[in-house]
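ingest -> validate -> predict -> emit
validate: passed (alphabet ok, no gaps, 95 aa)
predict: started
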Amino acid sequence: MANLNDSSLQSQNPISQAQDSVGKAHHAVTQAESHPTQQTIQQAHNSIERAQNAVADAKLSFNQAPVEQAEADLAKDEAELRQTETNFRGNETLD
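emit:
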């Protein structure tokens, strides 16, 4: 029973929510990288936006180290998505 309570409390923690959201954004970006389509790229953009909002909410927390790590991870994913989108757009004009 303690595990259920722990996960319930964790899901309400803004830092955990931000870390989870950044993880989902990373997954969306890797999907866009491996299968670049307009849809996967848009989904990755949407996921990054949600993660940015979650990280902004988590910044109100006292423990900033995990928030800073989440921000760094998200920035890396944003850069990778920009590169994927650039490559996709370049390939689109060649077809």
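The longest helix spans residues 64-94.
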